[in-house]
Amino acid sequence: xxxxxxxxxxxxxxxxxxxxxxYEGFLDTLKVFLTSSGINSTDEVTYRHIFLxxxxxxxxxxxxxxxxxxxxxxxSLSFSRNDVFIDSKWKGFPSTKDNIAQLKMKRIGVExxxxxxxxxxxxxxxxxxxxxxxxxxxxxxxEKTKNKGTNNISLQGNLYDQVRIAYSxxxxxxxxxxxxxxxxxxxxxxxxxxxxxxFYLSSLRIKGKxxxxxxxxxxxxxxxxxxxxxxxxxxxxxxxxxxxxxxxxFECSGKFSKTFNAPLPIGVILYRELExxxxxxxxxxxxxxxxxxxxxxxxxxxxxxHIHQYYAQWRKDNGLMSQYxxx
Length: 327
Description:
Blueprint: H1 2-10, E1 18-22, E2 31-36, E3 39-44, E4 49-54, E5 57-64, E6 74-80, E7 88-90, E8 93-95, E9 101-113, E10 116-128, H2 133-145, H3 157-166, E11 171-172, E12 174-179, E13 183-189, E14 192-195, E15 199-205, H4 209-217, E16 219-225, H5 230-235, E17 245-246, E18 252-256, E19 263-265, E20 268-282, E21 285-297, E22 304-308, H6 309-317
Antiparallel strand pairs: 1-22, 2-3, 2-6, 4-5, 5-10, 6-9, 7-8, 9-10, 11-22, 12-13, 12-16, 13-17, 14-15, 15-21, 16-20, 18-19, 20-21
């Protein structure tokens, strides 16, 4: 009875907060559209946005050089199953009643990287329909009673909803190898993405061991990995706060990257060798900008990614079949 009542109040039948999956086999995903105040048109940025931070929410959007939209001080991102047709307003932005979620975002900077502009935005408000509002309210009360661990970042109020929205698209969980030839570390990240073939973005927590190591060595290898390795990848999360150790203490694939000769992880599908060229700070995050030195695909498999519980529940409630990997 207690379990039944909990499900009625929370609206949740999926227990895990983040659920792993195979990226390529995850179908019927949402689309993301950008709108600007005063411009009655949309720009699909599903594959041109990079989720980089959660406190605050940080998203980078890639624009062609000739685009003027990178100059917009404030934007809205709409998350929808279908193409967006403007038929309403939301927070002063052109919108549609069919949106499942929306984010209001403010620009904090622009970088010119080769033939594109990359505009960086932080979230100021988010609204979603993944769960009925009564369930959302009850869940917010439960969240306030939870005792967060010392290493966990507390996400409260609307910020948490913004993050849930960002994770309504599958985010690839890759592994970063940082090595000086003798010592190394290996840890996961889901805050990253490519800017064309020549540049790459990621973020790490300021003053964290992982961030210190990357800034000291300035060369990393980031590997997309087989979704079947999801338990191993999550287990490596503890390495964000650990010192570099002898490379022989890590169980790797036996393969090495071409230029840096860095050990590649078990289950590697594709890797990129990156050289750090710039960085800046936003909230708890250091946004890292890299130049791509070399990239290579080494195997065929479904790429590890994950989504948030709320969106997984919404899919289940709407009859969208999905194959999940539960830890």
